[in-house]
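quick q for whoever's on today - can somebody do inverse folding on this one?? i tried earlier but teh output was garbage lol. tokens:
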């Protein structure tokens, strides 16, 4: 069985796939940590780190590495209501929710020794807004300005309950260095994060060292290597032999063996990703809700879970991860029921699938296992299908263009329902299924403008009852699930408490 990689998608491109973890602690120096046998942490990833320019990130590994090199104004831990302060020392929100005012710290230095200024923050926010890869995170920001040297005001066209979670992806970089390096900044990054770049060999490894002047205190682990190892079996072996200290790029097939080795600690956690099967609403017969409901009942989600995650993931009813805040209530969804699926097909005029043209299931290599299970499920109710594996960017382009029947992909947009609405609203940036319902659009506009969390949850619940129970707009299958494998030489502490997917070196230490 293949390792199922969770990919976080944004408009037209792969976007921020492995939003990292940040310590819940306030500014606390780690420089007084005990001496350990090793001062180099080796982290394995299957994805390359081609660029460290935050505006050009195209893989989860690049986002993870950027989380080491850069810092953000604030950080919202998973499930939290209030953000932690980082480069900003405080913030206020206007009564109408359309402007956020941040007061900056005065002790933040970049890796080249220059002081971080308000101009760097404005420049970085504008890059965040203009990046196509980050469009699903920055869409609500209308502008930003600096009334003085220590204040930044971010304005919005409408209130955005998911702003702070999305803002986790706005890395602050040096304006002067970015402008001077131009297209080479991705290999010559200048940030203010806990680690600075020592060497960068794309396709091989990124070598980092602790930044001694980091404003939150120098990292306990002084050196870090992010090593590219394309094969998950090789990663598992390297973890067992001690060549690698930490990875989330481990197949669930290998967990039992790793646990039995006694050399590592395996921690399985739900993440913020969701795997969907999407039906194109612009192509007959999938514009027929009866056909969509039939296929929804036909898919055996637990079989997907058993095949891909060894049964450890969460089977979903709604299009939100299990860790979602303000999660919807009262959504029935579709349990595996092939007999019900056949009844609905017959009601739609396709008894036992007769009269239906062969269906094409399109996906990318990382989700091929899902496609194989779905193909077997569809055969059971009389629907003939074929699987087409495409390169990820070509696959996404085809989905946006409406050239696909049924497609399987992972999406990870955080834990706030507002972040996911672009998949369901008319013309939404991630509305791959080309779904449209004016009532859903109206409820969404009402929800994001409502400051009351309980009332928003009621509105989101109504939205998802329409999207799933009434319209069968898409088929949520499983919530993302990651296995963190740590060397027993590492002290994990609370490194995973604020985790969206991957623990940061700054939050780890050697025993």
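ok took a stab at it. sequence:
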């Amino acid at each position: 069985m293949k390792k199922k990689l969770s990919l976080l998608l944004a408009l037209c491109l792969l976007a921020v796939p492995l939003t990292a973890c940040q310590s819940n602690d306030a500014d606390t120096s780690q420089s007084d940590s005990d001496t350990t046998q090793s001062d180099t942490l080796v982290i394995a990833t299957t994805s390359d780190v081609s660029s460290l320019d935050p505006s050009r990130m195209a893989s989860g590994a690049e986002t993870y590495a950027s989380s080491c090199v850069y810092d953000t104004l604030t950080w919202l831990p998973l499930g939290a209501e209030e953000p932690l302060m980082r480069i900003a020392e405080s913030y206020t929100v206007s009564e109408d929710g359309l402007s956020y005012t941040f007061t900056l710290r005065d002790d933040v230095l970049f890796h080249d020794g220059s002081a971080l200024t308000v101009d760097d923050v404005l420049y970085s926010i504008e890059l965040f807004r203009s990046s196509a890869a980050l469009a699903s995170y920055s869409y609500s920001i209308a502008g930003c300005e600096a009334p003085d040297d220590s204040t930044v005001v971010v304005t919005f066209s409408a209130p955005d309950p998911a702003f702070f979670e999305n803002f986790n992806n706005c890395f602050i970089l040096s304006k002067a260095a970015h402008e001077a390096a131009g297209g080479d900044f991705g290999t010559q990054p200048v940030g203010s994060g806990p680690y600075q770049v020592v060497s960068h060999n794309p396709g091989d490894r990124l070598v980092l060292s602790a930044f001694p002047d980091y404003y939150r205190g120098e990292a306990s682990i002084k050196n870090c290597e992010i090593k590219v190892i394309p094969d998950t079996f090789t990663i598992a072996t390297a973890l067992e032999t001690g060549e690698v200290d930490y990875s989330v790029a481990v197949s669930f097939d290998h967990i039992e063996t790793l646990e039995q080795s006694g050399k590592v600690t395996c921690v399985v956690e739900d993440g913020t990703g969701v795997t969907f099967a999407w039906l194109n609403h612009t192509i007959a017969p999938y514009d027929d809700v009866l056909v969509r409901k039939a296929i929804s009942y036909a898919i055996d989600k637990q079989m997907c879970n058993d095949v891909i995650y060894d049964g450890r993931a969460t089977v979903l009813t709604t299009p939100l991860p299990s860790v979602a805040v303000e999660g919807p209530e009262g959504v029935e969804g579709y349990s595996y029921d092939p007999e019900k699926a056949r009844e609905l097909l017959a009601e739609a005029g396709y008894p036992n699938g007769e009269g239906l043209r062969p269906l094409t299931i399109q996906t990318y290599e990382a989700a091929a296992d899902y496609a194989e299970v779905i193909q077997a499920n569809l055969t059971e109710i009389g629907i003939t299908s074929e699987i087409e594996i495409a390169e990820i960017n070509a696959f996404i382009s085809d989905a946006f263009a409406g050239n696909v029947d049924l497609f399987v992909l992972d999406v990870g947009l955080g834990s706030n329902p507002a972040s996911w609405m672009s998949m369901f609203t008319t013309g939404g940036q991630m509305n791959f299924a080309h779904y449209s319902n004016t009532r859903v659009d109206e409820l969404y506009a009402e929800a994001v403008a409502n400051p009351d969390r309980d009332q928003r949850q009621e509105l989101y619940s109504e939205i998802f009852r329409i999207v799933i129970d009434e319209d069968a707009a898409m088929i949520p299958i499983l919530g993302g699930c990651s296995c963190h494998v740590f060397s027993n030489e590492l002290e994990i502490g609370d490194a995973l408490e604020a985790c969206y997917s991957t623990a940061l070196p700054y939050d780890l230490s050697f025993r």
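fwiw Residues 272-480 form a domain with the Dipeptide-binding Protein; domain 3 fold (CATH 3.10.105.10). also The chain has 15 helices and 20 strands. so keep that in mind when u check it
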